[in-house]
Every structure is written in C-alpha cells, then in structure tokens.
Design brief:
Blueprint (H helix, E strand, L loop, with lengths): L23 H6 L2 E6 L2 E6 L14 H16 L6 E13 L9 E10 L3 E9 L5 E13 L3
Antiparallel strand pairs: 1-2, 2-4, 3-6, 4-5, 5-6
C-alpha cells in the first residue's frame, strides 16, 4: 500500500491524490485505509468491547461512523481534488449484527460529484463478505483550485 501521508505528484499512483494522515477520530477508533480506487475507497476496523451496545453487538453509531468514513474517503479520489467534505445527509440500513472483535470493511463509492455537493454509497461487510449494512450520504464539498 502507498504511503497515505503524502500527496502524489508525478510519481504517484495514476497521478491521483494519496490521502493525508488519518484523522484523530480514525486513530482513536482504529480505522485504517485498505484501498483507494477510481472514485472509491475501502476502510476497515476491528471493534472492541467499548464499542458494544447493551446487547453485546457493535453499536450502530460505530458502524455508521465506519460507513461515513469510507464514503468521505472516496471523495478524496476525485479530480479536481476535494479539499474538504462534510456529510449533511446520511442514511443507513442495518442488515445483520456485527460482533465485537470481528473485522469490518466498508467500501465507499462516489455516485455523483458536482461542484459543491456529492452523493456516495457504501457497503459494510463482516467476515466472509457477510453484509452488515448499506449506506448512502450526501456531502457538502469544497474543491481544490486547479
């Protein structure tokens, strides 16, 4: 995997942006980037006990955060680049419970990107590709100057 702490120049992968360091929230939650593609990003985490709900499964807010992170990261692959992105509409559909300690992967994809807003979608999966949740979001974006 490429170094996510630098911007890709001429020698970067396909001339695309390699996203900067993870946010403090990502470090705190243990979220890491797995892959960046054309208009897509995959992130993962392994939830721990403090992330459980009263029933002992992963709290829905943690799953929501993982999905939001994947969708937001997918926006960083756009050209012209996105300097800032903030979700203002987020919809999640929970399909199955996620267990504490099992790795979760979220694959976000850009559906539409305009000058000021973008629409994304995401699949959150557990081990073996078991579908945990689907999500969609609309982001307010600020584009980098070309």
């Amino acid at each position: 995997m490429s170094n996510p702490s630098r911007l890709a120049g001429e020698g970067g992968p396909k001339g695309r942006l390699v996203v900067s360091e993870p946010s403090p929230a990502w470090r705190w939650l243990g979220i890491s980037q797995v892959e960046l593609g054309d208009d897509s990003a995959t992130v993962e985490m392994t939830p721990f006990e403090d992330m459980a709900n009263h029933a002992g499964f992963v709290h829905g807010g943690i799953i929501s955060t993982l999905a939001d992170s994947a969708m937001g990261r997918s926006l960083r692959t756009l050209k012209p680049g996105v300097a800032r992105a903030m979700s203002f509409d987020l919809k999640l559909s929970f399909i199955s419970a996620a267990k504490v300690g099992e790795k979760l992967q979220a694959a976000g994809r850009v559906v539409h990107a305009g000058r000021r807003t973008a629409v994304t979608e995401c699949r959150v999966e557990g081990p073996g590709g078991r579908l945990v949740a689907t999500a969609s979001a609309t982001f307010a974006i600020t584009r980098e100057k070309e």
